[in-house]
Design brief:
Low-confidence stretches: none
Number of helices: 18
Oligomer: single chain
Number of domains: 2
Number of strands: 20
Bound molecules: iron/sulfur cluster
CATH architecture of the largest domain: Alpha-Beta Horseshoe
Largest sheet: 7 strands, mixed
Structural class: alpha/beta
CATH topology of the largest domain: pyruvate-formate lyase- activating enzyme
Length: 533
């Protein structure tokens, strides 16, 4: 039976809002303390520049930036007096992001050196000790790391090893562990480092039921969604809550909400699990969840009210994989009936169900930005993706959404299997033709991932050879094609049109990454921004 749980969110992700997963777990279990080491990591990095306490600072000082500029950039992003001046915003975000890239790269390398060679620079060790000090001072009897994206793994491995030297039990779970969770208990690298010395157990899929059983001391054989090691690595069956209405709203108590790198508190909220569409041939997102379930509209309204009351929050990020237009309609209707004074953004698929009246209703209810899964401006590629969208519908949705006052961020995939040079040029023409309706264009490279429909039926997508990734943690594979461009080849064509692409994104090229900030700008520049929140 564990009594002092430390839920830890590790670096490095944009520190604009508190993490959601561990806030849900804490609420469900009714115990534990939250540690956002990602936020502390960014704060400590800014401080380190002043103190010149990491080698990277010495490298940057007087060359890329002065400590004072970085300190000012951090203050700018946090306190927000000049936040909504686009020019100032872009200068300060650029300073902050470029500096953090250097720090991330140095500390990631140090963390992995510590894992593999047991050696680390004194400066990095001091930094990590400082980062871990609140967790150590809490004297946990169990530390649970939450890994939302794969790139947090290097820090988790290093930090877990440091905690293990003090015999603190450590477990790991999170959204990005659906692929090969057993890797966290296996022997890795040429030196065969045994990670089962770092972790007592690994949780994949949804964590509530399994973590509850684990901390209550249930036999490992009986716990769902767990991976553990006896003589061999054992992965138990997946399970999950059939009714997500039984969950309480996330508990953000203990997070320093005013300290995030956004001038307003923005809270994440999950209103459904999985994806109602589940057909896109590249996607494995829906595999992070047990199956598709929605929280009832009434519960979501209660959550929003409760979070607003407890944290004085007016801005929300609905972090669902994808929200159905019917659900947007129901939610908007109830928000309007309840006269909730909130602003939010979410992901959606641009289908014709997003009618002008629905989009207007969404705006009135507080939707200020939608992240649309556009993916391509070429119908043949949309069909290869099985997106279930058409070019005329996408154009109509972007236009009416824009006219309703909603900011459209669109996701685009570069180098989808079978794409030709003409398709890429056609995409670019489509984006430039519709640029007046697009606020941010976020491009990403196609990746072939284990578990996707393309991976399972490569021949249908002209993929002739798949090479498994030697990195046991990563689902991404190299591949060869018989027709069409490889992803990097498509990216090269995009790069030639960099200027046109850059000019499509309005206000800031950083919104693809800092989406919470996009919401704040979209509201600030709207006809009826929230004031005095
Ligand atoms: S890409 Fe989005 S809409 Fe498509 S299956 Fe994945 S989560 Fe669902």
């Amino acid at each position: 039976m564990y009594m002092r749980l430390a839920f830890v969110f590790p670096p490095s992700m944009p520190p604009t809002a508190p993490p959601c997963g561990i806030a849900y777990l804490k609420a469900f279990l009714g115990q534990g303390t939250l540690f956002d080491l990602n936020l502390s990591y960014h704060d400590a990095s800014v401080h380190a520049m002043n103190e010149c306490s990491l080698p990277v600072e010495a490298e940057l000082r007087g060359y890329v930036l002065e400590p004072e500029q970085l300190k000012e950039a951090a203050i700018f992003l946090k306190d927000g007096k000049e936040f909504f001046n686009p020019e100032e915003y872009n200068v300060n975000v650029s300073i902050f992001i470029n500096y953090m890239k250097k720090v991330d790269s140095y500390l990631t390398e140090q963390s992995m050196r510590y894992v593999f060679e047991d050696s680390i620079d004194d400066e990095a060790q001091t930094f990590f000790d400082h980062l871990l000090s609140p967790v150590r001072e809490y004297h946990p009897d169990l530390v649970g790391f939450s890994q939302m994206i794969l790139s947090q793994r290097e820090f988790i491995l290093g930090l877990a090893k440091m905690l293990k030297t003090e015999d603190i039990p450590v477990v790991v779970g999170g959204a990005s562990l659906s692929y090969n969770p057993g890797a966290y208990l296996s022997e890795i690298g040429t030196k065969k480092i045994d990670l089962s010395h770092f972790f007592d157990a690994v949780f994949y899929g949804e964590g509530e039921l399994s973590l509850k059983a684990y901390i209550e001391g249930e036999d490992l054989e009986k716990i769902p969604n767990i991976v553990y090691k006896k003589e061999t690595i054992i992965k138990n069956e997946e399970s999950g809550l059939s009714d997500i209405d039984v969950l309480p709203p996330p508990d953000f108590d203990g997070f320093p909400l005013k300290e995030y790198y956004s001038p307003k508190v923005i809270l994440p909220l999950l209103t459904s699990r999985g994806c109602y569409w589940m057909r896109c041939t590249f996607c494995i997102h829906h595999r992070s969840y047990y199956r598709y379930r929605v929280r009832s509209t009434e519960k979501v309204i209660q959550d929003l009210k409760e979070l607003q009351k407890r944290y004085n929050a007016f801005y929300f990020n609905l972090i669902d994989e994808m929200i159905h237009p019917r659900r947007f309609d129901q939610l908007s209707e109830r928000i309007l009936q309840e006269k909730l004074n909130i602003r939010f953004y979410a992901d959606a698929r641009p289908t014709k169900d997003f009618t002008p009246s629905l989009l207007r209703k969404m705006y009135t209810a507080g939707v200020r930005a939608v992240l649309w899964g556009v993916e391509s401006g070429t119908q043949r590629i949309l069909d290869v993706i099985d997106k279930g969208t058409t070019i005329p519908d996408i154009e109509a949705v972007l236009q009416t959404s824009h006219e309703a006052g909603i900011w459209n961020m669109i996701f685009v995939i570069m180098g989808y299997p079978t794409v030709t040079e003409d398709d890429v040029k056609n995409d670019i023409t489509f984006f430039t033709k519709n640029e007046q309706y697009i606020s941010t264009l976020a491009r990403s490279l196609f990746h072939l991932e284990v578990g996707s429909r393309i991976y399972e039926n490569p021949e249908k997508f002209c993929i002739t050879k798949i090479e498994e990734n030697p990195d046991p943690f990563s689902a991404i594979c190299r591949y060869e094609v018989s027709e069409g461009l490889l992803n990097r080849e498509a990216e090269r064509i995009y790069r030639k049109h960099r200027k046109e692409m850059m000019s499509i994104s309005k206000v800031s090229p950083y919104f693809g990454r800092l989406r919470d900030h996009m919401l704040l700008f979209a509201d600030h520049l709207s006809l009826n921004p929230l004031t005095d929140t």
